[in-house]
Amino acid sequence: MKHFCFLCALLTVTAQTMRAEDGSRLWLRAAANVRPARVRVDFGTQSDAAHTLDIAASELRTYWHGAQSVTLCHTADTATLGRDGFRITLHGRRVRLEAPTPVAALYGAYHLLRLQATRQADSVLAAGVTSRPANDLRVLNHWDNPDGTIERGYAGHSIFWGCPLDTARLRAYGRACASIGINRTVLNNVNAKPEMLRADLLDRTRAIADILRPYGLRVMLSVNFGSPHALGGLGTADPADERVKAWWAAKSGEIYGLIPDFGGYLVKANSEGEPGPMDYGRTHAEGANMLAASLRPWHGVVMWRAFVYSAQSADRAAQAYDEFMPLDGQFADNVIVQIKNGPIDFQPHEPVSPLLLAMRRTHVMTEVQITQEYLGHSIHTVLLAPEWSACADLCRRYGVPQSVRAVAGVSNVGDTLNWTGNDLSQANWYAFGRLAWNPGLATRDIAAEFLAQAFTPDPAFVRPMTDVLARSHDAAVHYMMPLGLHHIFAGGHHYGPEPWYVVAGCREDWLPRYYHRADTVGLGFDRGTAAPGSGAIAQYPAALREQYASDESLILWFHHVPWSQRLSGGETLWEALCRAYGDGVAAARGFAGTWAKMRPWVDAERWSAQQRRFDRQAEDAVWWRDACLLYFQQFSRMPLPSGVPAAGHNLPALMRFHLNIDNYTCAPIDALP
Ligand code: BDP
Fold first, then answer.
1. H-type helices in 96-198, by residue range?
2. Which residues fall within 8 angstroms of residue 270, CB to CB, at 6 or more apart?
3. Each residue of 398-425: pLDDT tens digit?
4. Which of 68, 254, 528, 627 has the most crowded Cβ, counting Cβ within 10 A?
5. What's the pTM value of the predicted model, to 2 decimals?
6. What residues line ligand 1, using a CB cutoff of 6 Å?
7. pLDDT per residue over 649-664, tens digit each?
């Protein structure tokens, strides 16, 4: 009997340690205490946010394993901490967590648990922590449609729309966001349906807001500028029309009646066919200000996107600047112009958007893309932190200090159990939150933190995998679009390479040849100031202009370079291009090899799902290399340099193949050649 009990116990323990992992717990996988930790809340009367404090206390009681007790206490020191910051100090066997608001206490609680999970609690607590976010608004943008589909979503369907309201799932989402400091969420697609503002969907929005509020997450909606016409039946959406103004004032009032802490509107107007003020001869500023006036009584904001380009523009990369700079100073102070990090569109690697640095009398914010539309969807493992950090750094050095500091990221979350399809792509959601809080964090530190929490803190796993994640963006840039190449994707889904993609009658700026400009002379888009350059480089401040003019990682972004021109390393452009693709392939293969060795540290489910993805990524890297080199070789007419393996595919076959991923929700893995 004794033996039998022992065996049972052993089996239970083994079953627990080997417990199937589905990735649903993200980076919040700490084991619960058997006996709750000692936690005291000394916050005075905060009845409106009592629930938030309850969550903070309960997270610590359940997951804080330290010998010390924890006291959450209120401080009035907003001068140092703002509204969201916190201070953690150690006093003998007591941890004191001071915060000016309940939500700041919640952020502090998660920070303490993060220190514990990453095995830094003792060393960091000995010195004490004071932390205050660099951005006031740390915003997720979900491109979710009311029918539950997600534009550029690669992890299933929406968790907000087109499904029964899943309170547990939404709480888990709120918890994950709070754990990394995200405090705003836009619940629907920027290509917004007018019906989003219908009473039934607003009521749904209210229900979601009620669930997310305790986590400090305030909801926002994307709105269709044509709503007064399409939904309100006014026959116009002209922002100067009094009936239109009254319609928006009433609509905003209706929303605040339901959701008193509603964050405001996100707007994509006069972009890619969406309606906007220019349909009525009004400017972006006039449109944005009219909406902003409707939100002003409740302190709501308008995030007005600057993602605009037209078929007529000589250079798409220059257009947002050309269209918005004349409006600098005309936007109301509760409008923030939301600008993509690069001047084109979330490409693997772009220079910073010049508009982000140039507007001096307008609030601006950066928008990055967490979902990997242009980086291998949920198949490829690519940690985007280096691209985002570089953008934040340039904004800090060359941009105008903002009185409202904000950043947005287009989310990669769906209803798939592990939230993001690829378990390691959770790292991009995580990195977005961490960098929104502290843009100075190093990529390697973010990667190591994530891996330790989402998998295991064992250095035998964390060290090699930190290396993989930290190098993954550079690798993807190399095997997809090295040296500043951009937008040479397959049309539509943007997954694989199609530098040759043409459709009769299609807008030129929707075709790869518009961007790569390959001819027998050379490759790349001349954006210099001398003819025939587009002059776009002149939109940058002088110091940055010089830096970009000589930055070889972007040489084909700014120059049309002759095939035989020698780059700084002594190779010709053609040789450098071949080598870059080769390096990308080698790196991707290396990642698959490293992951293969991680088996002892990872549960079987996540290990094998991820191995398939890494293998696919390495094969895709070869696909990219072969497609691009064979295609460009027609123009360079140069042989592959020694050391670059001959292509495993042939160009006509590659050009005939078109990946069909219509209606897929997760992975095109099996459809590929
Ligand atoms: C592009 C996407 C498109 C989005 C658009 C945007 O392909 O689906 O609607 O950006 O940001 O990258 O509005």
1. 102-117, 121-127, 167-179
2. 276, 277, 278, 279, 284, 308
3. 999 999 999 999 999 999 999 999 999 9
4. 627
5. 0.96
6. 151-152, 190-191, 268, 272, 307, 345-346, 373
7. 889 989 988 887 754 4
